[in-house]
Design goal:
The chain has no helices and 25 strands. It has 375 residues and is mainly β. The protein has 3 domains: 98 residues, Jelly Rolls (Sandwich); 112 residues, Immunoglobulins (Immunoglobulin-like), CATH 2.60.40; 142 residues, Jelly Rolls, CATH 2.60.120.260. Strands 17, 20, 21, 22, 23 and 25 form a 6-stranded antiparallel beta sheet that branches. The relative contact order is 0.14. Bound molecules: calcium ion.
């Protein structure tokens, strides 16, 4: 539908959806330059779970190119559905200021631990036709008791961002110990000066909070004795056990050879940590091959000398299975699979976790205060 540049519109609809975080309503703009059309998101609102009918409404200012609105699928959860009704766009007349064309993003699916600072990276991209000046990034609406710091001093402030450029802010977010909200939401905003206006853009932000301290998957790297290489990125590579996606798996080789048991995955931690558990999430679909039965867990300071700290037999369940052991300081954790539940030579896993707390917790800096715009 045609949006007139410089007008404010209210876009609203009612909806139902069964799984949160699977769908987003997006406002975007297309621009044609040198015969090429570039399309980009201006706002992106992730739809909450709504088993009863919920209302969505947002006001937008058209501009920054040809404005459009639409629906985007974000997640890969099976069985998700969405129903939309009463879709309405109301022209509210000419806006007082021009459209804010920059964009700000927050990560999808970051895991944070109670009481432990976790890295959370937001981005700001300047889609304006001139520099965005005095850019300040903020996280309004963080749940009570959360601490937000920035990894680099004033890492949330930027004097000037050129058109087309993207800048990152690495936050350190600490949910309070004992927090009960496992999937909190808040906002990320960017405020900047452009052509005499002060403009603000925002996006939804969210994280998954574990119920006990767990090492950030992004801080670890994984290696394995064997990886299948013929079935695409989602099945085979051992890096899939740290990507936060239950739909992607590590699987041992069945193409070049049927690699025999035992199989192993070594997780190199992002530094020394005091650890007391290992988590194994089996493959969620695609048949029984690779579901591990007997296992051992070992730890190491150097990746060479290993101490076995746990062993047992896993079950055929779709949840993460936690293997507990006495707290120990380590820089590497190795999971050794001894055989499979179905006695085939394959091993697989959807995700792996190490429970514990890094020895050196990052401290960071308080977020910088955005100075007032000078006119
Ligand atoms: Ca995965």
């Amino acid at each position: 539908m045609p949006f007139e540049e410089g007008h404010t519109y209210r876009v609203s609809f009612s909806y139902q959806t069964n799984i949160e975080g699977q769908w987003a309503w997006v406002t975007g703009a297309d621009r044609v330059a040198d015969g090429r059309t570039t399309s980009r998101d201006i706002t992106r609102d992730v739809l909450e779970q709504a088993l009863d009918t919920a209302a969505y409404s947002r006001e937008i200012v058209a501009g920054c190119g040809d404005t459009w609105v639409g629906l985007r699928k974000l997640g890969s959860a099976r069985g998700t559905d969405l129903v939309i009704d009463d879709f309405t766009v109301t022209d509210l007349g000419k806006a007082e200021t021009g459209a804010a064309c920059a964009a700000v993003t927050a990560p999808n699916g970051v895991e944070l631990s109670p009481g432990v600072p976790g890295e959370y990276v937001t981005t700001f991209t300047n889609h304006e036709s001139a520099d965005a000046v005095n850019v300040g990034i903020a996280l309004p609406g963080l749940p009570e008791g959360w601490k937000a710091r920035v990894k680099e001093k004033d890492g949330n402030l930027f004097e000037s961002v050129r058109p087309g450029a993207t800048v990152r802010t690495a936050w350190l977010l600490t949910p309070p110990a004992g927090t009960t909200d496992a999937s909190p939401t808040w906002k990320v905003t960017a405020t900047y000066a452009h052509g005499g206006d002060t403009r603000t853009v925002s996006a939804d932000a969210r994280a998954a909070v574990s119920d006990e301290p767990v090492l950030s998957p992004g801080s670890m790297t994984a290696t394995a004795d064997s990886e299948n290489t013929s079935s695409g990125a989602g099945e085979g590579p051992v890096s899939n056990v740290l990507d936060g996606d239950a739909g992607t798996i590590w699987h041992t080789d069945y193409t070049a050879s049927r690699a025999p048991y035992p199989h192993w995955v070594t997780l190199r931690l992002g530094g020394a940590a005091d650890v007391d558990g290992f988590g194994y999430l089996g493959r969620q679909s695609g048949g029984p091959n690779g579901r591990v039965a007997d296992y051992e867990v070992a730890v190491s300071d150097d990746g060479k000398d290993w101490t076995t700290v746990a062993g047992g037999t896993l079950k055929d369940v779709p949840q993460t299975q936690r293997v507990s052991f006495d707290r120990v300081r380590a820089s590497y954790v190795r999971f050794t699979a001894l055989n499979a539940l179905n006695k085939q030579p394959f091993a697989a896993a959807a995700e792996m976790r190490v429970y514990g707390v890094p020895v050196d917790l990052p401290t960071g800096y308080p977020p910088g205060e955005r100075p007032a715009d000078t006119r």
